Amino acid sequence: MATSGSRSANDVDLADHEIAHQLERIIRRVKQSMNYRGSYSTRDILGALVARWLQSGEWERLKLLPPAERHLGESVRRFILDRLDQLHRRGHRETLDDVTVTLPDDAALAELVELAELRGWIAQRVDELAAGTVDPRVQIPLAQPAESGEILKLHLDGKTQREIAAARGVSLGLVNKRLAEGTSYLAVLQGIECGLM
Amino acid sequence: MTAALGELERRAPGDWPEALRARFPDEPALARQALVWLHAQRAHAIDHGEPGGLGASTRYELGVRLGAGATAAVWKAYDRKLRRDVAIKVFDPAACPSVDATLAEARAACEVQSDHVVRVHDVHDAEPPYLVMELVGEHEVRTGALAPGASAASCRPRDLWEAVRWVRDVARGVRDAHLRNVFHRDLKPHNVLIMPISRRAKIADFGLAVSSAGEPAASATSPHAQLIVGRAGNRVALRVAGTPGYMAPEQARGLPIALAPNDPADRATLVAVDVWGLGAIAYELLSGRPPWQPTDELDAWEVAAAGARPAALDRTPRGERIPLRLRKIVDRALATAPAERYPSAGELVDELDAVLACRPTSFDRAPARRFALWSRRNPQLTVTAAVAVVLAAMSLGAYATVGHLRHQRTALAAEVREVEADAQHLAAQATAARRELEVTEANLHTQAAALRALQQALREAEQDYHTVVEAKEQALHSAGVATRALAAARDDRDVADKTRELYEGFWARARKDAEDAARARDEAERERDAARAANEQATRERDEARAGRTRAEHDRDVARAERDRNAAARRQAEADVARLIGELSTAIGVAASHDAPPPDHTDVSDPPTKGATQ
Q: Is B353 an 8 Å CB contact of chain A?
């Protein structure tokens, strides 16, 4: 996870295949988090609710507790129930007295939390990149960090490469190149955050 | 660094760790960063380039990537077997839950036979799962090249009516799908493809569709994606599926997973969701924004679930005013309560057809509105009818005018008759009056003549009177004059008497005076005779005087000559005297000079000469 704590690269002694496996996982998760969710499923709705739960600061509080005492699922469940209840009270739906909501298990919720956290982390890094700020820990230079950041923001907003090229008045190839550079930068930075390097 | 990475990218991924260790022996962290960078670049190239392949199939040759979503990418491909261009939707094995979902989508799309739905030709239900679909595109007339279509999200309508046509096309596709018990549930502009030339719209992506052929197993079977809501003993598994900005309110709150298209209640629920989706497409195409937009506090799906209403439509992004009837149609399609929406997509098609054809919709019930629409729909007929109405009106007007004129003419004739009768009556009255007038005039003439005669007589009488008066006055005057003359005569007589007496005295004195005068005259005659004698004497004396003067003048001349000579002699004498004086001065005295002789005396009338004076 992005915030599972930084570890020095020198402390890690993993075999190449293990490192490669973890790197692939990081890359896949970064790319998956960057994909625009056009159509939502229940899973995406739950992911959005978990993202709201993250914004509430509850996760920051739970992270200070030992894992055994966190009760992640219960916290998320309460938050989602409250949120759904608020929504239903806003609308004109029938009363939800005695209604129960069954959420996925803790493992699935943990995965949702992890993904929501990663999406938030990506959004922050892309904003920094668009402002021209490059993390100094990344030693591979970016040609145009601000341009890469702005194109990544449009990509996260669900714009196609054609739309981005048209909006910015650049070629499709350049958009693709900046997207590749930006994604690689985020993957490297996520690897650093995870203590793999 | 960039050049080195570019060089490594061209090598096999298996060689990268060794090559990086060799290149950065003292910088293992940098080597690992470079390794992640290379893998990420490769993953991006795979995602955005040609995938690893389509399995064992060699039938399709992938071309360019047309688009990508969260779970799949669509490629333009060539069907070698049928020798045609197709579109292939290749699912991401990591993102796609199962092959069943691919099959369900393919079956749902294949169920529908419509010109407004993208056809599915084939499905590959092994790894990698993919769908072979109709390539939405058209051949350009000039070049013959195949121009691909674009989604309505990126290819915006040229005007308001094109947007309506697109929604109508999509609604037709949805209607056809509903006829086959296929319900899309994810209608949005991104899933509407627009033909590049004919600008017709087609529905794509039946990934969330529900059909009698099978339920998409994407989330229904996933334990991670179930939201179980229900009362005690009656739990219902809900499923949220759709796109947040375009979800129907009940869809955002979650629909039961086990919806049966053949069940009337479930079918009504599914139809309402799709009708809402059609309204959402219309809303975005007309306004340029989706019905639901996230806020700081709520995500878009939460706004939808809260039961709010989308902001009211007013104008298109180009500034065109959206007609009221069209807004009403969209509002009804987007009604919060499913029961208030159109009961079927077919009714929405009819409404949009009516809008496009200027026919009355269900909202146009007023006769005036219907007539206005009919007029817009049939402009030539309207003009003809208008002309006919105008002509008929003119004819009626003319007829009414003629009738009115006739009535007026009759009335006028009656009036004329009355006026003529009145005129005749008046003429008779005038004749009688004229006659009376003539009689009166004759009488007047007679009376005038009599008057004039009277006036003449009066004048004559007056004149006579004046004459008499004048005569009397004259007589009185004459009498006065006579009286005064008599008095004067008496006075004259008295004066004459006195004058006579005076004259008589005078006469006596005159006689005496005459006698005296006769004597005086005799005396005077004598004196006259004496005077005459004296005069004659005087004349003679004058003649004598004249003779004496002539002689005197002769004497004067002689004297002058004598004087001249005397003068000369005197000047000689004076000279002699002077000379003698000089000579005798000493001898004689002054007394001798007094003894000198005096000058010659001449006529006293002669002036003394200068020399003599001197």
A: no
